[in-house]
Amino acid sequence: GNFMHGIKHGRGIYYYVNGDVFEGDYLNGTRHFGVLTMANGSVYEGQFENDKRQGYGRLAMGDGSVYFGDFR
Fold first, then answer.
1. What are the residues whose beta carbons fall under 8 Å from the beta carbon of 45, sequence distance 6 or more?
2. What are phi and psi of 39, to 5 degrees?
3. What does the alpha-carbon distance between residue 63 and residue 31 come to, in Å, rounded to a whole number?
4. How far, CA to CA in Å, does 55 sit from each of 2, 6, 7, 37, 70?
5. How many alpha carbons lie under 13 Å from residue 47 in its C-beta half-sphere?
């Protein structure tokens, strides 16, 4: 992915040790918007703030249920 002044900034893909994968945009080193595919089969697509799901997004759970809406 892209870096600016040694920190993640811009588009990138990050592979976590636990099997999760994030593909999207970073802002000043933290996730900003993108898709987080979790090792448990769940997929979150949406906004992040302070590297946490925050704002509007979509969460598809491994059991087939889906939530669209705001995250805090």
1. 34, 35, 36, 57, 58
2. -60, -25
3. 26
4. 24, 27, 23, 18, 5
5. 9
Number of H helices, E strands in the chain: 0, 8
**End-to-end Cα separation, the chain, in angstroms:** 27
Q: Render pLDDT for 18-40 as a digit per residue (tens, 0 to 9).
A: 999 999 999 999 999 999 999 99
Residue type, 62: G
8 with 1: CB under 8 angstroms?
yes
Query: How much is the pTM?
Result: 0.89
* Half-sphere exposure of residue 19: CA atoms within 13 angstroms, side-chain side: 6
> Residue 41 carries which DSSP code?
S
